[in-house]
Amino acid sequence: MSPPLKIGICGLGTVGSGTFNLLHENADLLKARAGVSLDVVHVGARRDNPACDLSGAQVSRDIFAVAADPEVAVVVELIGGTTVARELVEAAIRAGKHVVTANKALIAEHGNALFALAVEHSVQLRYEAAIAGGIPIVKALREGLSGNRIEWLAGIINGTTNFILTEMRDKGRDFADVLAEAQALGYAEADPTFDVEGVDAAHKLVILASLAFGMPLKFESVYTEGITRLQPQDVAYAEELGYVIKHLGIARQTNQGVELRVHPTLIPRQRLLANVDGVRNAVLIEGNAVGPTLYCGAGAGDRPTASAVLADLVDLGRATGSADPSQLPALGVASGNLQDLPVLAMEDVESPWYLRMEARDKPGVMSGLTSLFSEQGISIEALIQKAPLEGQTLVSVIVVTNQARQGSVKDAVRAIEGLDSIDGDVTCIRVEQLDG
Amino acid sequence: MSPPLKIGICGLGTVGSGTFNLLHENADLLKARAGVSLDVVHVGARRDNPACDLSGAQVSRDIFAVAADPEVAVVVELIGGTTVARELVEAAIRAGKHVVTANKALIAEHGNALFALAVEHSVQLRYEAAIAGGIPIVKALREGLSGNRIEWLAGIINGTTNFILTEMRDKGRDFADVLAEAQALGYAEADPTFDVEGVDAAHKLVILASLAFGMPLKFESVYTEGITRLQPQDVAYAEELGYVIKHLGIARQTNQGVELRVHPTLIPRQRLLANVDGVRNAVLIEGNAVGPTLYCGAGAGDRPTASAVLADLVDLGRATGSADPSQLPALGVASGNLQDLPVLAMEDVESPWYLRMEARDKPGVMSGLTSLFSEQGISIEALIQKAPLEGQTLVSVIVVTNQARQGSVKDAVRAIEGLDSIDGDVTCIRVEQLDG
Ligand SMILES: NC(=O)c1ccc[n+]([C@@H]2O[C@H](COP(=O)([O-])OP(=O)(O)OC[C@H]3O[C@@H](n4cnc5c(N)ncnc54)[C@H](OP(=O)(O)O)[C@@H]3O)[C@@H](O)[C@H]2O)c1
Ligand SMILES: NC(=O)c1ccc[n+]([C@@H]2O[C@H](COP(=O)([O-])OP(=O)(O)OC[C@H]3O[C@@H](n4cnc5c(N)ncnc54)[C@H](OP(=O)(O)O)[C@@H]3O)[C@@H](O)[C@H]2O)c1
């Protein structure tokens, strides 16, 4: 058997400690599968973690000592963020070490430069754990579906928002109320902005899109909308209409450009994706050969995320001695062959829409509405007027449109909001049929 | 760019023609991803297929000419069966060629010898297409989940039986009736025995189990039960109880041995797997790090199956120049390290059971039944006595047990069948909670 793969782990938080401990717990089978022993020889952590028995490994309080250690062959970056982590990854690559990371922010925002640096130094930069936790979705796109032109993909790629939406639907609760509980349960961070505003999902989406379409990472081009403004009544009306609201990352190849968008979305209840509840993640991918395939599992947590880190380490162990990175390009195609596809402007993105407006219950309202839609060339799939509540003069009117350009929908909405018979703003949520 | 990967395709039937045509349709992206051009230089087919334009490739009526062609680097075996296909694969390996196949029967029944031969000749024998069509499930188990001890897996791995069961449930139809339609629609073969008796699923299950547990293929040890005897009333009663009947392949690691079994199974309706309908396939895998992950998609068809063949070809293209097969062992661990795990006898397998019996509606029947169960140490989860139909003296009694040894259940069933108050045989179907 070949000499061990010598690993340095930086960061001993949730994922770092999970990885460290699983490397020991599953040591025998990892060795059998990798063909070499996976040995942690150096840990970089500002302080010990009581969950980890560090005897046997060298421990440095300065994580850069790990990147500089001549014995270390792979640096596992699990500190997070885009500042120190970036410096660490660059230092490790320059020192000729492979890097494994779970850091989606780092890859989404600085991946292009980091992948190029890795090629320059003939090392691999692996990031299976950065998207959808333990689901091997990077491998599925980069290798398992490599025979396909990927048409589109849609994913539940943030467990916190999916947990909140599931609770809102099942119990009719408010966003703020459920968020507070999610924080208490430890599903949501103390500062949940990245999750509920969709930034975390946008980080993951852009990586998925680059893998799927063979294009450079364009994080700045992702349209990002969170779930903070979602009302319980829309969740309930969606359900009445046969839909479930999910917070999706969607990427699609069209003749005009690539769609990159993260937003709440109504999807038909009978889709498997609509039934992925709680903190689970799932990604649905449409390929021109295979059709739709779905991948579902735990999108976060110490052990699921560590599972993905270990998969990258086993791959590196198996490839020991053939470390030419040109053989497995980070984004599936060699960086020189990535295509700089244009990103479609959101106003040109087409989808059906769910619109809710509060109307004064008087004659002519409906015909006024429908003529505004037809002026924009938008056809209506369903129009529902709810009965006014006791003592109320306003009634909710819900419109589901057919496929329509966002620009036209927004024009129609502006005109509707100008009507005397309409009170306040129109609530607008995209719909996707996801029917491959 | 390196020189092309030169491919020989043997067999131009459903999968062969799909593979040939997709290699052309997706040629540019395959080249970008593989880093080399994937060129079909030789086709072996007894006759032309009007769906394929063979100009540009050499065509031989004798498939063995492809295996002998010094120009060919990879032989793609798509003729099926375990006789000529076996000779062809052996000839190709002995000639120093990599082999890609979709042939589950061949791998399940002769894989141990073929993988050893491939190692001996330093070539790869790849078979992603052999299981679950286009779902990259081999890659998920062998690489994506390599950090996990796999506890169990359960899969819908035969599209024909899943289509039949879906129709039986949705429309209350008979097995024979739906089978005839599936044959007319082309979902089922003219001779559907391999599908409906579970042999095809057993072929796939044993490969999944070997990948999951790192053990040699033991096709002869798989317990195999088809769906031919399933009654519409059991499908309906299962539904009343909150279950769906699926034909599953199940593999599980226990302290006593490995379970390898294919049979109809009641699973809770709310599981995603219970909602995988029609010809789709899905595999649920429980790993000790990641927990449960699910993989779903098209399990058959020309293009989905070709998608998996192409993935193997792209992998081979990417690895050009590093063809040492020890780096990616066929079953995930090097053959010398496979563990010869014992297979658990079916009588020792534990699961809950669904039992239906026809009882004469008279006093004391129920207490007689329940005492027979408790004599065998079997506890009862639910017991339902249906109202007798107009003019009938027999009533259906349905029992769902808790976890019980199959041996004890069968003993109890024999005793029940001996009771005067019971008419005919007891219908016995296993239940799985699949709750990881
Ligand atoms: N948690 C998940 O479920 C999950 C899932 C997928 C991906 N990820 C990604 O995995 C990475 C790690 O996440 P995590 O949840 O494990 O975070 P965490 O629990 O906060 O752990 C981060 C660790 O990094 C250390 N660290 C941070 N900055 C450092 C610095 N400048 N120098 C030295 N050590 C430093 C921290 O040390 P101190 O304790 O001393 O501050 C801590 O041990 C992030 O990129 C995250 O996005 C996490
Ligand atoms: N169809 C699917 O959806 C699917 C899915 C997964 C895996 N697979 C597997 O893929 C393989 C191929 O299946 P398929 O559906 O493509 O079968 P198919 O349509 O029956 O095609 C088989 C092809 O092999 C040729 N062939 C058979 N025996 C031959 C021989 N002795 N010499 C030369 N040519 C021979 C046949 O030629 P003739 O036409 O001259 O007889 C035909 O072109 C099988 O192992 C199957 O289990 C199929």
UniProtKB/TrEMBL annotation, chains A, B:
Membrane-spanning ranges: none
InterPro entries cross-referenced by the UniProt entry: ACT-like_dom_sf (IPR045865), ACT_dom (IPR002912), Asp/hSer_DH_NAD-bd (IPR005106), HDH (IPR016204), HDH_cat (IPR001342), HDH_CS (IPR019811), NAD(P)-bd_dom_sf (IPR036291)
Catalytic activity field: L-homoserine + NAD(+) = L-aspartate 4-semialdehyde + NADH + H(+)
Domain of life: Bacteria
Keywords: Amino-acid biosynthesis, Methionine biosynthesis, NADP, Oxidoreductase, Threonine biosynthesis
EC number: 1.1.1.3
Domain ACT: residue ranges: 354-430
Keyword Membrane among UniProt keywords: no
Signal sequence extent: none
Pfam families the record matches: ACT (PF01842), Homoserine_dh (PF00742), NAD_binding_3 (PF03447)
Pathway(s) the chain acts in: Amino-acid biosynthesis; L-threonine biosynthesis; L-threonine from L-aspartate: step 3/5; Amino-acid biosynthesis; L-methionine biosynthesis via de novo pathway; L-homoserine from L-aspartate: step 3/3
Phosphoprotein in keyword set: no
Similarity comment: family membership: Belongs to the homoserine dehydrogenase family.
Cross-referenced NCBIfam families: PRK06349.1
Protein's name in the database: Homoserine dehydrogenase
Record organism: Candidatus Marimicrobium litorale
